[in-house]
Amino acid sequence: MSRSTTISSPDHGRVTARRIFTALRTQSSERWLYLFLAAQFVCQCALMAERMGGRWRIYFRAATFLSSLAMLLLLPGRTIKPHPASRLGIAAIAGIGLGLLHPYTNTLAGIAQWCLNAAIWAPLFWIGRIKLSPRTLWNAVIMLWAFHTISSVVGVLQVYYPERFSPSAEFVRTLMGQFADGLLITLDDGKQVWRPFGLSDTPGGAATSGSFAVIAGLVLFLSKPHWCVRFLSVFGVFTGIFCIYICEVRSIMAITVLGTCVMILLQVLQKRISRAAASPLCSTLIAASFCALITALPTVSRKASRNMRKAIPDFSA
């Protein structure tokens, strides 16, 4: 019995290896992933164009989600192994689909909502058709980090040079309606500006880019030894913290702190003790340097400083 098991085992291994090799040959190039990310960036930046009418804005906003569904339906290749969260995605999509059976559900709006959520979960099902490698993952992270860092830089420029880089008041009021005036911040010189947009069409949207720039910047700083990459990552962290600070979005600040803690925890679980020890040290030094810099800059509003201090718990009491 043991002899037959020994003989059949290599055959089974060869069949499995042959199937994997065949699936790898039929997988799509990683360029599809880069193209998808680039399309997302273009669609988001297009929403900032004031000359674009409301009709075209709807097209670009819909293209953000339709591109994900298009990848699901049209991307060639075979999935070698399903994503670990694919079952959770199927359950979520099915649960939302059950909402269509509610008698008070607007059928058209319900279908649109279901398609929207399906587009959000779709990458779980088409990412397995792409040839992925650690380098591909790094390239994708660097693309996302670069975009959000640029968005953070634009957010900083929108505070210091609002006439040149910030959208017009008419454009913002058209987008936000009666809530627009509540999204203004006051500078020390008494001038009121919109919360930085970044590369988005929402006042305060630069805070989301700032959060990603901070977390991804710390990862790049600890993982890439090249001095140029480390310099740019620290620059991205500074601009990201500034955007979170000036936008006064406390939830984004909490998410950023939580994301940094999770990053440190992952380093500990992977037994990278030196990186885990360096992470809080780097975060503390960068935060302290930022506080010293922000104290020296008169442009930031005292009102924003007071509001931000209220969001930080006082442990001395």
Labels describing this entry:
two-stranded antiparallel ribbon, 14 helices, disordered N terminus, 317 residues
Tell me about this structure.
The chain is an all-alpha fold. 71% of the residues lie in helices and 2% in strands. It has helices at residues 2-26, 31-46, 54-74, 86-98, 107-121, 123-126, 134-160, 162-165, 169-176, 206-223, 227-247, 250-269, 273-296, 302-311; strands at 184-186, 192-194. The protein has a two-stranded antiparallel ribbon with strand order 1-2. A hairpin with a 5-residue loop joins strand 1 and strand 2 (192-194). Helix 2 packs antiparallel against helix 3.
Question: What's the short story on this structure?
Answer:
The chain is mainly alpha-helical and 317 residues long.
Write the layout of secondary structure elements.
Blueprint lengths: L1 H25 L4 H16 L7 H21 L11 H13 L8 H15 L1 H4 L7 H27 L1 H4 L3 H8 L7 E3 L5 E3 L11 H18 L3 H21 L2 H20 L3 H24 L5 H10 L6
Antiparallel strand pairs: 1-2
Helix pairs in contact: 2-3, 2-7, 3-5, 4-5, 7-10, 7-11, 10-11, 10-12, 11-13, 12-13
Number of strands: 2
Pick out the low-confidence regions: 1-15, 301-317
Structural class: mainly alpha
Query: Can you list the strand order of the major beta sheet?
Result: 1-2
Largest sheet: 2 strands, antiparallel
Element order: H for helix, E for strand: HHHHHHHHHEEHHHHH
